[in-house]
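As a warm-up, study this chain.
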Amino acid sequence: MKIQIITLFLATMTTGLMAGIFFTWTNAVTPGIGKLNDIGYLRALQSMNRVILNPVFYLVFMCPILTLPLATVLNYKSAPSLVFQLLLVASIIYLLGVFFITVQGNIPLNNLLHKNDLDGFSLEDARNLRNKIETKWNNFNLIRTITSSISFIFLIITCVIITK
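Now compare it with the structure written out below.
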């Protein structure tokens, strides 16, 4: 099997998985924990953020960051120009809208949350911390949901073109 096909398959599969994770958080997780009181919200977000950081998540998160640009480069001359263009756009959208937003947006907010021991928090402290995190985190995650989904759609289109 050609390396271009393997790389495209891995990029498509893991981009789709990440789009699904981001969609689930946007559609169900954050609205659900958003209904909790301030300390409950902070504890839930803190717990979920700690649990999701595991080897399987890291593998799935990092795979598109590596395989999207690799698939783009590998298909530069060997595929129709539309395939290359779709892969290039999918890569740029994903790297900016998922990786950059995660590193510059979500991770600093997660770190802000994690450096706080919530056990001694007053109601005011909890409200202030939640106000610093919730809306920004949710907006960043919405960006990741949209951009990963667009990248996934471009990858599906690319797969369809290649199989014709």
